[in-house]
Design goal:
This protein is mainly alpha-helical and about 190 residues long. It folds into two domains: about 5-135, Winged helix-like DNA-binding domain superfamily/Winged helix DNA-binding domain (Arc Repressor Mutant, subunit A); about 135-185, no CATH class. It has eight helices and five strands. The protein has helices at about 10-15, 20-30, 35-45, 45-60, 90-95, 95-120, 125-130, 145-165, and strands at about 5, 35, 65, 75-80, 85. The strands form two sheets. Strands 2-4-3 form a three-stranded antiparallel β-sheet. A two-stranded parallel sheet has the order 1-5. The protein is globular, with a radius of gyration of 19 Å. Keywords: DNA-binding, Transcription, Transcription regulation.
């Protein structure tokens, strides 16, 4: 599976530093090309709000027009990239406030998705309910060890994405989302 990534820079970071914009890009990646009206229905917001944010995303090159699907009355959009990569070290130096806003937007989108899935959990087939997992772990690590952990977890996730492309999925396969958060514990107490 060939994935098209975008590495965020200061301009694209600012364009994604809004929860609705993160949701729009995620929805286009998940469901494919859509109109602003369709996106608004999926996201539960007004078409005017989605249209405004889609134009901002298009100006930043994060979504693109799909002219072969549109007509004089409706415009279709698709995500311009399959994957978003944020080099937090560089972005933190360039614009820490925009990076923080972007990260909060990502956290909001992940939280909404988790709540939607948990709200629908009782209607899931038992085999999917039994493999749904929300786990947390704690370890006392140095920044270097934390970086190593993050890289290893990313490698495992990327391996599964490569080895199980959507185009080769069997009839019992479903799209599965897995999110990674590696965060320092703010309530550490005594560090001795």
């Amino acid at each position: 599976m060939s994935m098209t990534p975008i590495v965020l820079d200061a301009r694209t970071l600012k364009a994604l530093a809004h929860p609705l914009r993160v949701q729009v890009v995620g929805t286009l990646r998940r469901f494919g090309p859509s109109t602003a009206t369709q996106l608004a229905e999926r996201l539960g917001v007004s078409s005017a709000a989605v249209s405004y944010h889609v134009r901002q995303l298009a100006a930043a090159g994060l979504v693109v027009d799909v002219p072969e699907r549109g007509n004089a009355r409706e415009r279709w959009w698709k995500a311009a990239h399959d994957v978003t990569v944020a080099d937090t070290r560089t972005l933190d130096e360039d614009d820490p406030d925009a990076l923080d806003a972007y990260l909060r937007s990502i956290a909001t989108a992940i939280t909404l998705r988790i709540q939607q899935v948990l709200g629908a959990r009782s209607a899931m087939p038992p085999e999917w309910r039994s493999v749904t997992d929300l786990s947390d772990f704690r370890a006392r690590l140095t920044p270097a060890q934390t970086e190593e952990l993050t890289e290893r977890l990313h490698a495992v996730a990327e391996e599964y994405v490569r080895q199980h492309p959507e185009s080769e999925a069997g009839p019992d396969a479903e799209m599965v989302s897995f999110d990674l958060q590696v965060l320092p514990d703010l309530d550490v107490g005594d560090r001795s």
